[in-house]
What we know:
With about 170 residues, this protein is α/β, with parallel strands linked by helices. The protein is built from four helices and eight strands. A six-stranded mixed β-sheet has the order 1-8-7-4-5-6, with helices on one face. A two-stranded antiparallel sheet has the order 2-3. The model is unreliable at about 10-25 (pLDDT under 50).
Amino acid sequence: MLRLKLVGAFLVLGIALLVGSWFWHVPQSERVSGTAPDFALPADGALPATRLTALRGHVVLLDFWATWCGPCREEIPELVALQSKYGSKGLEVIGVSLDDANTAAAIPDARQRLGINYRVAIASQIPDLHGYDFASIPTLYLIGPHGALRGKWVGLNADSDLDEQVQELLPR
Length: 172
């Protein structure tokens, strides 16, 4: 009887892990609405400090990520490609790293290895980062040129229609 209970417990645990890992890798698109909450972005290299509202007129893609997050690192090349393709047309990709004091030193190396060509800020350095839910990463928010939230994706977006959604929001 004890053996049967143990087998059952391991079976339930195995199914939970399988389902959990599937949700980790499958993007969960969510409808969002309203105006994107404003926050201050610290300076990043040659880029001066600014506020999110100062980027009105641009399409903004916020990526909440961390250097230790495998799916985050896997998604970054798509964001690099989007910034390269649409940056001159009004797209601003902004990476918001959730690295803490123990792992933040890895950000410069990750930027170089991954070819990150967009602004990166550290969440702990943004005191007014309220209104964004990034309990699970990677989490992306798409913000239209007038500041409206247009989409949210939680999880790896390898096969998403992000390119098309960005194109729709850019000026023609």
